[in-house]
Amino acid sequence: MDTLTILGILLLIAGFILAGIEMVLPGFSIPGISAIICLVAGVFLLADSIMEGVFITVVILALMGILMALVLWLLSKGRFRSPIILEEEQKKSEGYLSSSDLKYLLGKKGVAKTDLRPTGVGEIDGINFDVISEGNYISKDTGITIIKVEGSKLIVKEEA
């Protein structure tokens, strides 16, 4: 084997490793760009003709599909820790509320902390909530009343 062939193989291996790293990390950044550069350079160094380059590219794409399936399988089985999955639990005892817990706010009165056009922040019982006005503009520091709770949406109207 000559030096260019060995360099081409090393570039392909580096490209696959960098692509695997990119599949685990969120976003598209340096490992992904470097993987593309390494894989393209590896194809150019290994291919003697256009048909051979096309064949190597098809093989690389097939291997990338297998690599992606493997990484997804490992992530789903918990073998890798994904940086985009929240690990902490949000417990009610620690102050977290689910959307179904907001029904108790129905009919409560508060104050618009920001202008509601139609969304903004309202303070109810000393706690800030994201609220949606009934459709009308409500200016800051105006009294509001919660008239409807739809999931996590708190619909308010201006206090009369």
Q: What does this protein look like?
A:
The protein is about 40% helix and about 20% strand. The chain has about 160 residues and is an alpha+beta fold. It has a five-stranded mixed barrel with strand order 1-2-3-5-4. The protein contains three helices and five strands. The longest helix is centred in the middle third of the chain and has 27 residues.
Could you outline the blueprint of secondary structure elements for this entry?
Elements: H1 3-24, H2 30-46, H3 50-76, E1 109-112, E2 119-124, E3 127-133, E4 143-150, E5 153-158
Parallel strand pairs: 3-5
Antiparallel strand pairs: 1-2, 1-4, 2-3, 4-5
Helix pairs in contact: 1-2, 1-3, 2-3
Give the ordered list of helices and strands.
HHHEEEEE
Unreliable sequence segments: none
The overall strand count is: 5
So how many helices?
A: 3
The value of Rg in angstroms is 28 Å
- Strand line-up across the major sheet: 1-2-3-5-4
The termini sit apart by 86 Å
Helix content: 40-55%
Structural class, by secondary structure, is alpha+beta
Give the averaged pLDDT, no decimals.
85
Overall geometry: elongated
* Largest sheet properties: 5 strands, mixed, barrel
Percentage of residues in DSSP E strands: 15-25%
Question: Outline of this structure?
Answer:
With 160 residues, the chain is of the alpha+beta class. It is built from 3 helices and 5 strands.
For the structure shown, list the relevant keywords.
single chain, 5-stranded mixed barrel, elongated, 160 residues, 41% helix, alpha+beta
